[in-house]
TrEMBL record, chains A, B, C, D:
It holds the Pfam family TetR_C_43. Keywords: DNA-binding, Transcription, Transcription regulation. Residues 1-26 are annotated as: Disordered. The keyword Kinase does not apply. Residues 55-74 bind DNA. GO terms for molecular function: DNA-binding transcription factor activity; transcription cis-regulatory region binding. The keyword DNA-binding applies. This is AcrR family transcriptional regulator. It comes from the Bacteria. Residues 33-92 form the HTH tetR-type domain.
DNA sequence: CATGAATGAGGTTTCATTCAT
DNA sequence: AATGAATGAAACCTCATTCAT
């Protein structure tokens, strides 16, 4: 939850699913639906731990169904990825939109970065999805694309306020967030929290800030980084 | 090369190999030596791209020799890792020692971080070796261990000078360097250069620096991160 | 079948499987069962010819299935060995127990030796299993261990009757049986039948029998001989 | 040495090399000759332990020369086998001829069997050579062939004296000797001595000896048995 | 519709023999 | 002539995906 600025009403965030479905047609049979849910739930855990390339075998085992069932329900890996992460990505967008409600621009940006890393750090799959625009299908991609303007707004605000390095771009934040999110280990799953303030201080505009060199990361870079 | 502080003579740094060899006995025959070099060169490329777990098959193919030849020369993967990286790690130590010659503590630290990331970036193998103390054999481990005091000195100096956040520890630098080193893509192999100043600014002591939370990374964390 | 001693009814021998199964749980699917049988049948031939270390690849080829299938069904070589030989070893025990029903002690021993060699001859795999107590898993080992008392009884009876050399021990019989079993060739698979009476005559107590020298073979000897 | 029968002069055994060499032409250079000897000596040990298929690599290592040297001197495995075993086989022939000097036919046969097994038991290579007529080249084969009449004489004499089962043939003795020779383990290298009297007693003609069934072993059988 | 069995390519490693040095 | 390096076929085993039941 965003730290509410005092006596300020927070913009209501629209959490409703934007109906991007393209004719999945009729509903599943009751048992099929149950299995579908079991699979999704299992995959959430498995993908969170092992990433998007985790074996369907493991998912099936965790769900208590046969592999075949997983493949029938999700013939392409991307189908499962979609089912798992469309909502999560939506939630990330919502997060950025929520952050817009924080009055202080720097706090807004910082809060968002923290939240978004917190989400990704505990979920390797989510981190890969956010980084790799090629993952999942149309629906997921669309959700993902909505992050850009939302984060762009946070960034623009901070830039206007002169609190962030002026040449930081949206994908720079994505890169930094994605690197921070990797800083999670068995021994210290929240290791990233130690480095977040360093990243934030580094992003902050200072009298002596040198201009950033080179161009910002591009989608293709992000994709490749996410696939590592 | 270190940026020389003005009008100051720089201490001569000893770059000579400290003779860690343990009885490799006599030199290889000419053809074997040639193949060895082919293999090492091929492995450099392959490991740089695919990491330490790249297939020996691929190395052999790239070197234009049979698999058996690779196994004859390097019966254990660690033998090949040693051959590839012992010098590189030595060079990293030398780098840290070179940096000691830079008068200005902050510059020394920054220069070292830059150099060390430059080495690791684009060489996934080296990055894995530096992160994962279990890789390679004794000789490599020894070389790697020498980094700690060398970097420790740089850090201590910066801390005494009050220019670095006082609670940053050596392994924090290793973590940050290792993350930066990952920021290298086909499209922009030097992407990391854009984020280095951000990291450095974030490491710098400021009047308003908040203390870092949690404990610094431990060896085990570093290892796990490197294996990702 | 044991040669019945005249006008004497023979004790009914219990040939039923003594239920050693440890929760194999539910039966295999029809196709899996079919493949399992194909594999076992193929392995019978292959192991009979090449011994227990025959390649899984060859078994798979002979069975007309992929290697993976063999590994799925029998992840450890010992699993396959068990499946192939547990019943065979059981049958050998039953053989010894059957022999107990033969009234004449010498005939009982001879009949058993003949039957047991007949089983082993031409089946290198079985011979190795019987000789090498380390092969196969628990279940097989247990079955194998039951041979000792059963054969011991036959031997004791013959000794009490004074028809066998008094210093022959159980493992001596195992050694002799195992050597005889090797006497099977493509040209004459039953070559051993020629040497069996020689061995038996040699085992028989005679007025002039010299005592045997040295100690009897030990398990370790038998194991090593079987591995040859 | 044969136990000399009293007051009987022993036939002088011709130990001289029968010059079967076919133009090996000129003598080796001094160093080559030295290496040849080193190799043969090493191979004696190695083949004795591991049999005729032992790796040339191992022989080379034991000899302290390169593998290439072994292959140069003995391009075919059979060449080395010849060099190693021609004399040994000669010696076996001599043994049989020596045995002829023993007056008592049964003792002669028994003594020969004991000696010949003793030779083979300690030398797996020799055992394989004696069994497998295809091993080695012409010269060795010729030496080997000379065993037949020599042993044949011992056997004929015993048969005439009525002390051996009348239907035992020469190759039966070879089979029995070869099986006995296998009864040698690390724990008890002379295990075969325990079973030799059993075999001998079994070969002995008794009032109640049943005729042997089937035909005697043929060369082909012996060969296959030796290759096991 | 659910199942989990089957597949087979791909990586690892060894070893008998050949051949460049 | 001696060397030991190089070879490559072959066995081992795994795993993502397809398909028969």
């Amino acid at each position: 939850m965003p730290p509410r600025s005092t006596k300020q009403s927070v913009v209501e965030v629209d959490q409703s699913e934007p109906e991007l479905d393209l004719g999945d047609s009729r509903p599943l049979r009751a048992d099929a639906e149950r299995n579908r849910r079991l699979i999704v739930e299992a995959a959430e855990t498995v993908f969170a731990e092992r990433g998007l390339m985790a074996g369907f075998d493991e998912v099936a085992r965790a769900a208590g169904v046969g592999v075949g069932t997983v493949y029938r329900r999700f013939p392409q890996r991307d189908d499962l990825i979609d089912a798992l992460f469309a909502d999560r990505v939506q939630a990330m967008v919502a997060l950025a939109e929520s952050a817009a409600a924080i009055e202080e621009p720097w706090q807004a940006l910082g809060w968002f970065l923290e939240q978004s890393v917190a989400e990704q750090a505990g979920d390797r799959g989510l981190a890969e999805v956010l980084g790799d625009g090629m993952r999942g299908s149309r629906r997921l991609a669309q959700a993902r694309e909505r992050m850009l303007p939302a984060v762009g707004d946070l960034l623009a605000r901070a830039r206007r306020a002169g609190v962030v390095r002026p040449d930081v771009e949206i994908l720079d934040l994505a890169v930094i967030g994605s690197m921070l999110a990797r800083l999670s280990t068995d021994a210290d799953p929240e290791l990233w929290r130690r480095y977040l303030p360093i990243a934030l201080d580094g992003l902050r505009q200072r009298p002596d800030s040198a201009p950033l060199v080179g161009g910002a990361a591009r989608e293709a870079d992000l994709t490749q980084l996410a696939r590592r």
